[in-house]
């Protein structure tokens, strides 16, 4: 007696759910108040808001979700709101360290002060560069200098006279020359011996004078020491004069700055060190330092280069910023995060200075928020480690990688680290979050907040209304035509299709916004509003742009290149369903699965697995159906049948367990020699207990088989078997719904294997079981006969 399969057949109302917009009092989105914010992400929004408010260490935020859910734009909008409430920004400068030149000092200021400090310092230094030489050429300085020089010149002259009184008795006279004191012999009459007379001396007389001169030099050592002491004191007095003169003029010009920045202790300490250094190098201001004559010298090539040490490197300037800084670093290399020192090539040597220190994103975002994409972060070596080190120490340290990791070493600086107070927000997917949380202990301590953006939301009246308002927002902000109520309904329908659910709306805002833009572009110029037809045209156009591969496959089904039977019944052959994708576009296609059975005890041979074209999920599915067959048919005896299954004309590989029920049906058909209806395709996962489990891509799979049937001609018998749990996921295209309504196509939902077998074979459960046992017994008898022959 034929089995009535209509009880599993779905009604047209089950295939798609159109939202009734009559409850909403608007004719178009022009009547709606635009929506600010995001829809259906309450959990993520609450987590993000909480994380932004937390000030304790370690409460940085990981925003998880797939691209297109609005995670980035919403995060930025939330951060912007919080940033507006913060106004305690700081500026930073780097200055020369006079005590440790290789370690430049960092000084912080209230926002807006640093650039004024830089300008004040440059003004004073430039003024001193001009004024100090003038002071040292002034009449007052010259008089004082001459006074000191004349004083010590008189003292020196008196000492020389005293020395000559001593030397005269020994036949010599001391005279001041360019090279110091000259010893000149005296003649018998007491007059000085001329050079000519000295040169005409006999050897004996010359030797005698030489010996007397050496003896004299030994005796006048005390005088010579006194003479050198006078010269040293003269130099010291001149230096002291220069220092006091320099100190006086330097202090005069710095008095206003010292008073202006008296509340900043580090500024005062720096100015004191700077003033002391200026005094120490006052001769450079006097213009007495000459450039080196050595063409290979770097140090003194430019006389003014020395004065760079008195400059100020304006490192971070927040003078024009309102609220806390927000930095979205799109190229987070190690140096772009932590800062760097730029190097200059000077005659073959790489040089740098405190003026060449450049800030990184961590410096720019200090006091505010740093937003990073995880994918970008991990695409740059050492960037993650540099970020973690800064977060753990609450300091940003500028170091070259060669110092940390032993690369080629270049002489470099070690700038003073800057205290860091900011919140880092990483944006990535949930998988990356899970990996980091599982394997990186630092990550767990540093990123305690996870804001998880969902890909879908409930299709509630509240969310649908917000959804309509969000369309109004896009229309206002992007200058689009407003959408009619019917057009909004069509977009809501499309959103549910993206979510693969009657009860959900998709949160993939990027894809939804694209449809809005495209529907507006396709709208008739004479139309006031975007219509439902415009939205459908946009959906169709998008599909057309992306479905070339789908159409190529359908052509191959149509011309017989890809073999498929959608009529009649066959033993050991069934039509399964698979989903393929090209970018964001996915489509379904039928796949012919065949099974061949023969005597033996190898069980089920998965051809795809044997040739390594099968994924782990598919292998698991085959093992599960093996468990089902074993438990149901081999409790009392060992199965004596081997069945080989394969996806025909599959050369690329296969994965997933959504075809496991389909494979079970074709195996049982082959064993029991029961014909299967080729015009009904099947999808569904199976448990070891024979339960049919839900699968993904149900809409694409049904539509894929429907399209092939349309190409070859609808007969009124064709259809698809799906798991009962997937009925709620059905949002089929209108062509399929209309065909079902006309009785030209059918969709069946089942919950167990037995129901599927009855639909596919047209036999009752008892009849099917009887044939399966007969088939198994046949192979058992064949195996026993073989064993008997082997024994003989």
Automatic annotation (TrEMBL):
Every Lon proteolytic domain range: 568-763
EC number(s) from the headed UniProt entry: 3.4.21.53
Any one GO molecular function term: serine-type endopeptidase activity
Alphabetical UniProt keywords: Coiled coil, Hydrolase, Protease, Serine protease
Entry annotation: catalytic residues: 658, 701
Entry keyword Protease: yes
Catalyzed chemical reaction(s): Hydrolysis of proteins in presence of ATP
GO biological process: protein catabolic process; proteolysis
Keyword Heme assigned: no
Enzyme class: hydrolase
Coiled-coil segments on the chain, per record: 199-247
Domain of life of the source: Bacteria
Gene3D superfamilies to which the protein is assigned, alphabetical: 1.10.8.60, 3.30.230.10, P-loop containing nucleotide triphosphate hydrolases
Family: Belongs to the peptidase S16 family.
Name of the featured protein: endopeptidase La
Species in which this protein is naturally found: Acetoanaerobium noterae
């Amino acid at each position: 007696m034929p089995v009535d399969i209509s009880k599993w057949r779905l009604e047209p109302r089950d295939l798609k759910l159109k939202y009734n917009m009559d409850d909403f009092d608007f004719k178009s989105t022009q009547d709606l108040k635009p929506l600010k914010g995001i829809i259906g992400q309450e959990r993520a929004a609450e987590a993000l808001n909480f994380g932004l408010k937390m000030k304790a260490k370690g409460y940085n935020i990981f925003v998880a979700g797939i691209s297109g859910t609005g995670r980035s734009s919403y995060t930025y909008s939330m951060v912007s709101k919080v940033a507006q409430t913060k106004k305690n920004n700081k500026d930073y400068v780097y200055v020369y360290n006079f005590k440790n030149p290789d370690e430049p000092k960092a000084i912080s200021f209230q926002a807006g002060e640093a650039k004024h400090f830089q300008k004040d310092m440059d003004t004073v230094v430039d003024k001193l560069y001009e004024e100090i030489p003038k002071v040292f050429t002034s009449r007052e300085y010259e008089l004082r200098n001459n006074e000191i020089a004349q004083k010590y010149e008189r003292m020196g002259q008196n000492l020389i006279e005293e020395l000559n009184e001593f030397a005269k008795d020994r036949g010599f006279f001391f005279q001041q020359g360019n090279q110091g004191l000259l010893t000149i012999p005296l003649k018998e009459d007491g007059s000085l011996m001329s050079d000519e007379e000295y040169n005409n001396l006999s050897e004996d007389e010359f030797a005698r004078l030489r010996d007397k001169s050496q003896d004299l030099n030994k005796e006048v050592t005390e005088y010579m020491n006194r003479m050198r002491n006078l010269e040293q004191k003269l130099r010291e007095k001149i230096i002291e004069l220069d220092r006091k003169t320099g100190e006086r003029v330097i202090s005069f010009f710095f008095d206003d700055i010292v008073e202006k920045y008296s509340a900043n202790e580090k500024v005062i300490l720096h100015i004191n060190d700077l003033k002391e250094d200026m005094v120490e190098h006052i001769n450079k201001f006097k213009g007495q330092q000459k450039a080196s004559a050595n063409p290979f010298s770097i140090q003194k090539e430019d006389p003014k280069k020395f004065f760079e040490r008195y400059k100020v490197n304006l490192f971070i300037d927040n003078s024009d910023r309102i609220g806390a800084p927000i930095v979205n670093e799109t190229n987070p290399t190690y140096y772009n995060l932590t800062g760097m020192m730029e190097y200059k090539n000077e005659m073959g040597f790489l040089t740098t200075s405190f003026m060449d220190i450049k800030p990184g994103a961590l410096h720019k975002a200090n006091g505010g928020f740093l937003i990073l994409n995880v994918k970008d972060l991990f695409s740059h070596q050492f960037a993650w480690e540099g970020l973690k080190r800064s977060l753990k120490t609450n300091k940003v340290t500028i170091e070259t990688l060669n110092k940390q990791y032993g690369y080629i070493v270049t002489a470099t600086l070690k700038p003073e680290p800057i205290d860091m107070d900011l919140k880092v927000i990483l944006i990535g997917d949930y998988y990356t979050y899970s990996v980091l949380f599982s394997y990186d202990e630092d990550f767990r301590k540093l990123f305690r907040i996870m804001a998880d953006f969902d890909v879908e939301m409930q299709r509630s009246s509240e969310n649908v209304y917000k959804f309509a308002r969000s369309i109004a927002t896009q229309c206002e902000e992007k200058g689009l035509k407003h959408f009619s109520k019917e057009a909004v309904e069509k977009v809501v329908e499309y959103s549910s299709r993206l979510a693969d659910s009657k009860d959900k709306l998709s949160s993939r805002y990027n894809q939804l916004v694209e449809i809005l833009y495209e529907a507006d572009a396709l709208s008739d110029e004479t139309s006031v509003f975007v219509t439902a037809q415009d939205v459908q045209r946009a959906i169709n156009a998008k599909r057309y742009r992306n479905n070339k591969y789908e159409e190529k496959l359908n052509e191959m089904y149509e011309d017989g290149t890809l073999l498929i039977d959608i009529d009649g019944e066959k033993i050991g052959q069934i039509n399964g369903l698979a989903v393929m994708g090209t970018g964001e576009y996915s489509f379904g296609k039928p796949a012919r699965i065949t099974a061949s059975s023969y005597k033996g005890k190898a069980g089920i041979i998965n051809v795809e697995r044997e040739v390594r074209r099968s994924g782990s999920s598919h292998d698991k599915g085959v093992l599960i159906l093996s468990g089902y067959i074993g438990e149901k048919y081999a409790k009392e005896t060992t199965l004596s049948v081997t069945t080989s299954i394969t996806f025909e004309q599959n050369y690329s590989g296969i994965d997933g367990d959504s075809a496991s029920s389909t494979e079970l049906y074709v195996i049982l058909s082959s064993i029991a020699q029961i014909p299967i209806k080729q015009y009904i395709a099947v999808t569904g996962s199976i448990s070891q207990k024979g339960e049919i489990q839900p699968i993904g891509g149900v809409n694409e799979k049904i539509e894929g088989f429907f399209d092939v049937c349309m190409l070859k001609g609808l007969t009124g018998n064709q259809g698809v078997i799906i798991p009962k749990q997937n009925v709620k996921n059905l949002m089929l295209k209108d062509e399929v719904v209309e065909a079902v309504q006309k009785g030209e196509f059918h969709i069946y939902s089942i919950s167990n294997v037995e129901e599927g077998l009855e639909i596919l074979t047209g036999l009752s459960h008892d009849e099917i079981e009887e044939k399966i046992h007969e088939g198994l017994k046949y192979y058992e008898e064949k195996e026993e006969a073989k064993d008997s022959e082997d024994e003989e």
